[in-house]
Amino acid sequence: QRGPTGNTQVLIDNLCKGLDRGGADFIIIDLSKKNIAPCTACDNCHKTGNCIIDDDVAEIFETLAESDLTVFAFPIYSFHFPAKLKMLFERMYALGDNKDLLVSNHGLVFHQLDKSICSKPYAMIVNYGNIEYAAAKSSIDFFKSYTEFTDAPNVGILQRNTMKILAHNQSSNLKKKFPNIDQILKAYQTAGFELASSGKISTKTQAIANQEIIPLPLFRLLKHIKIKWFKSKLVKIGKKISSDN
What we know:
By secondary structure, the chain is mainly alpha-helical. 46% of the residues lie in helices and 10% in strands. It contains 12 helices and 5 strands. A hairpin with a 5-residue loop joins β2 and β3.
C-alpha cells in the first residue's frame, strides 16, 4: 500500500531476487499508484459487455491475463487487506456473464467468468506487525473462498507476522537479537526461484519463511494461549524492542 517505502516491499524485493535467479520475467503492479474505482453494480457490463468505469483496471486485467501466475502481496489493515485490492476483486464482477451459471471444480455454484484472469494460479505474501496469526485470518479465508469459486490454484502462502521487527532489522542491530531473520529472507528468495522454476512454493520453503522471528521457547504455542499475564509480557517485549531500535 505504501509502495517502495512499505514493509511489503521488503518481502517483494527478496522474492524478486529469486524470480530473477529463476529466469522469470515479471511485472510489479503497485496498486497504491493506480486509479481504481469501486464497482457500482450498475450491471452495464452484463448488458453491453463493457464496464463503463474509465480507470486503470482494464490495464491491470490485461496484464494479469498475459501472465502465467500472480503474486498478491499486501499488508493487513484492520484485520483485512487494503481497500484497493478489495475493489480490484469487486471489479472482476464485469469479467463474466452472471446469467450463465456454472459449477466450480470444488462443487460451488458460480457465474461464468474469464478464466484467463479469475482462475490464474496465485501465491500470497501477507504481512502484519501483530504477533497473532489471527490478524490475517479473514484475508486468508477470502482467498480460500476465491479459490473454491473460481478454481484459481493457490500455489503458496507466505504469512509474515511481527513484520515491524523484520523491517527495522534492515538498518539496525536487531539482527543479533533475531538471527533467523536472514534465514526467513532467504526463504523468500527461494520461494521466488521455486515460482519461476516449478510454479509453486514448496511446503518446506513456506515453513521456513513463516517461522517465528522471536526466538523464545514454546513461543508458537504460548502466544496462542489466552493468559493475560503472558500477553502483557509480550507487549512489554514489543515496547522494549521498539525503544531499543
